[in-house]
Design goal:
The complex is a heterotrimer of chains A (269), B (262) and C (149).
Chain A (H helix, E strand, L loop, with lengths): L8 E12 L2 E12 L3 E5 L6 H8 L7 E6 L2 E2 L5 H8 L2 E4 L11 H12 L4 H14 L15 H12 L6 E5 L7 H18 L2 E6 L2 H7 L2 E6 L2 E6 L1 H5 L4 H8 L9 H12 L1
Parallel strand pairs in A: 3-8, 3-9, 6-7, 7-8
Antiparallel strand pairs in A: 1-2, 1-4, 4-5, 9-10
Helix pairs in contact in A: 3-4, 3-5
Chain B lengths: L1 H33 L6 H10 L4 H25 L6 H39 L2 H7 L4 H39 L4 H11 L2 H27 L10 H30 L2
Helix pairs in contact in B: 1-6, 1-8, 2-6, 3-4, 3-6, 4-6, 4-7, 4-8, 4-9, 6-8, 8-9
Chain C lengths: L2 H26 L9 E8 L10 E4 L2 E12 L4 E9 L9 E6 L6 E6 L12 E2 L1 E3 L4 H13 L1
Parallel strand pairs in C: 1-7, 2-6, 5-8
Antiparallel strand pairs in C: 1-4, 2-3, 3-4, 5-6
Classes of the chains: A alpha/beta (269), B mainly alpha (262), C alpha/beta (149).
Chain lengths: 269, 262, 149
């Protein structure tokens, strides 16, 4: 179904302020997230990108501002309305957030069991379709504790898309993964975008994946949105902080473990 | 000095806030219990965990407490030549006091601590948030079955504890010391009234709800607990807190119920 | 642990728990959810000191019923005790109900001494011959005062 108003933003954020105690986390964020595209929210740790995501999901109440999606303002919506909105959203959390007492299949089926009255046979078929989409068909019976980091994220992704949501959120897809697994996950996100026509929002700080998957990029720094645009626009940006991000060498923080240990022991002598 | 007063004030506010949170959780849970859809299996699972899995511990501690009571009462009563009262003494103290209190404390140690740790870990690994984002109310899905199971399991465990403890007293009195079987059994039957059994029942139901509610609230709201105790350390912190707080509440409410239902 | 096993074990646990509770409530606690077959008699005493609801009613040392209620009559200043007598135990019209003590510090109970009449008491009727609780202090003081006078 091609939406005639596909140019209209699917999430519209206006003047969003969030405090945590006395600290100001978000200082007036304005952002339009285009529908049907992959939007990446990037920024260093502490830039407020996770807080922004939590606000959009309705998990954190902002001090002021508005977040409009699917015709509702999340900030002023009642709990019932937020729950109705959430049925249109899928979220894959950073650590996967799979329920450890349930198998992968049971995890993925949970929303179907809770929100639909489909019979078990149908639910199992739907589960297999989603598991196949994330290349996990053989892991159906495994428990979350038996999964590798990459598999956990893919299982979480399968659970996020089980209800065919209009909006998909992905928090730090490449965090804690080795580069090749992270690249596989990026391919998967691109595949989902092509296959399911959802609006996808990815929060990450990994430069490599950002330019691989993004249709639209929002750069955050110290609680403010400092740049937003297509990857070309961001590359061409003259903003100092943005240029800093772009020119940073990838993974320069990671050194060889042995070398790191040697440096530590020598330093203590 | 001002610092000290400030700390006291902060502490008091913290306690008030937590009591408020726990109470509102109770209200939410009660509200959810009355709302469809009703699902039996999650409650069964929790009764299995809180109740059935505690059975060995309850059998062992009940038997031991009963035997200790039998021994001590026998030693005291023998001095007055009133060993006929052994059955009454054991049965009354078990049914009115020791059964409900000991069972509740055992449940705190075995099931309560793991409830807190489980919910705390679910909170820090974003599993609670994940439930929220699937439009599944975590109060209803996680907390309510545990509290309902506590309300059902603890009275059942208490009854089993009472039974085993009375048998333990019987074993020591009748089998070891040769008290007449009839005088033990009749002493038990004559001394214990329905009112005593009812008091024990009321106590155990209240303890069951109280213990599970406190342990759930501690784990469930661990992200709101003192700043600086997040992560794995935070979980161990709230688990200790939950065990201490629920044990104290059991002992204190035991006195309150005893005084009110005199 | 499969779902079925969990349900099975939990079911077993609940059954054992309920059985233990029933034992405590009915056998030990003497609760009767369905009224035990029997009939009720009343008796007036000038003093029942120490008798409790749920206390034992005995005849010839055998338990034949329980004290089901105690009321105070403000007109005569007497205690009206209701006795629930088990089915099939006849009490004659001239039977005597006495409040006695088990041992020195034991509980108070109601002792029924059979009479010689052929007429039996029916449900709700009254035993007229009663002996109140014997108070040790009363006996002692009566002895002291009578010896003085």
């Amino acid at each position: 179904m091609t939406n005639t108003s596909s140019n209209a933003p699917s999430i519209r954020i206006r003047d969003l302020y969030v405090d945590y105690g006395a600290r100001h986390i978000l200082k007036g964020v304005n952002l339009d997230i285009p529908s049907g595209k992959i939007t990446v929210i990037m920024g260093g740790s502490g830039a407020g990108k996770s807080t922004l995501l939590r606000c959009i999901l309705g998990l954190k109440k902002p001090v002021s501002g508005s977040i409009c999606m699917l015709g509702k303002d999340v900030v002023t919506a009642s709990l019932k309305e937020i729950y109705a909105l959430r049925k249109e959203m899928g979220v894959a959390f950073q650590g996967g957030a799979l329920f450890s007492s349930m198998s992968v299949a049971e995890n993925i089926q949970l929303p179907l069991h809770e929100h639909t009255s489909l019979d078990q046979h149908t639910i199992e078929i739907m589960t297999r379709i989603k598991l196949d989409m994330v290349n996990m068909l053989d892991a159906e019976k495994l428990m979350p504790s038996e999964l590798s980091g990459g598999m956990t994220k893919r299982a979480a992704l399968a659970r996020a898309i089980i209800m065919d949501p209009k909006l998909l959120f992905f928090d730090e897809p490449s965090a804690g993964l080795d580069p090749s697994t992270a690249a596989e996950l990026d391919d998967l996100i691109l595949k989902l975008k092509g296959g399911l026509r959802m609006t996808i929002v990815v929060v990450t700080h990994e430069m490599e994946s950002i330019f691989k998957i993004a249709d639209y990029i929002a750069v955050m720094s110290e609680g403010e949105l400092i740049a937003a645009g297509t990857p070309e626009e961001i590359r061409a940006s003259t903003h100092e902080v943005v240029q800093d991000y772009l020119n940073r060498k990838p993974r320069e923080g990671i050194v060889d473990a042995d070398e790191h240990l040697r440096a530590l022991t020598e330093g203590s002598d | 000095m001002q610092n000290f007063l400030e700390r006291i004030g902060e502490r008091t506010l913290g306690i008030l806030e937590e009591t408020g949170r726990t109470t509102s959780l109770l209200v939410v849970v009660l509200f959810h219990m009355l709302q469809p859809p009703y699902r039996l299996y999650p409650i069964v699972r929790q009764i299995y965990f809180i109740g059935a899995r505690s059975l060995t511990l309850i059998l062992f501690s009940g038997l031991t407490i009963g035997m200790v009571l039998g021994l001590q009462f026998y030693n005291i009563l023998e001095r007055f030549g009133a060993v006929d009262l052994l059955g009454s003494g054991v049965a009354l103290s078990v049914i009115r006091e020791l059964g409900p209190v000991m069972t509740a404390l055992m449940v705190v140690g075995r099931a309560g601590s793991s409830i807190t740790a489980e919910l705390g870990i679910m909170r820090i690994t974003e599993q609670v948030d994940a439930l929220e984002c699937m439009a599944i109310s975590p109060d209803k899905y996680l907390v309510a079955p545990k509290v309902v199971a506590g309300l059902i399991s603890v009275p059942l465990l208490t009854s089993i504890f009472d039974f085993v403890a009375m048998f333990g007293g019987y074993f020591v009195g009748v089998v070891m010391f040769g008290v007449a079987e009839g005088s033990y059994m009749n002493g038990m039957i004559d001394a214990v009234q329905w009112e005593d059994v009812r008091l024990g029942l009321v106590k155990s139901i209240i303890f069951g709800g109280l213990v599970t509610l406190i342990c759930c609230a501690k784990g469930f709201y661990m992200h709101l607990s003192k700043a600086g105790s997040q992560g794995a350390e935070g979980v161990s912190h709230v688990t200790t807190d939950a065990v201490v707080l629920s044990s104290i509440s059991v002992l204190f409410s035991d006195f309150l119920i005893g005084a009110l239902m005199q | 642990m499969s779902k079925l096993n969990i349900q099975l074990v939990t079911g077993l646990f609940v059954v054992i728990g309920i059985a233990c509770f029933t034992y405590a409530a009915v056998t030990v606690g003497g609760a009767s959810f369905t009224a035990r077959p029997g009939y009720t008699l009343h008796a007036r005493f000038t003093s029942i000191s120490g008798l409790r609801v749920g206390g034992v009613v005995e005849a010839a040392g055998v338990r034949i019923g329980t004290v089901s209620g105690i009321e105070f009559d403000p007109d005569s200043y007497e205690a009206i005790v209701s006795l629930r007598i088990n089915e099939g135990i006849p009490i004659q019209e001239d039977a005597i109900a006495a409040i006695r003590t088990q041992g020195i510090i034991g509980e108070k109970y109601v002792k029924i001494t059979p009479g010689g009449f052929e007429e039996l008491l029916g449900d709700g009727s009254e035993i007229f011959e009663t002996e109140s609780a014997i108070s040790l202090e009363d006996l002692v003081s009566r002895y002291i005062f009578s010896s003085e006078g």
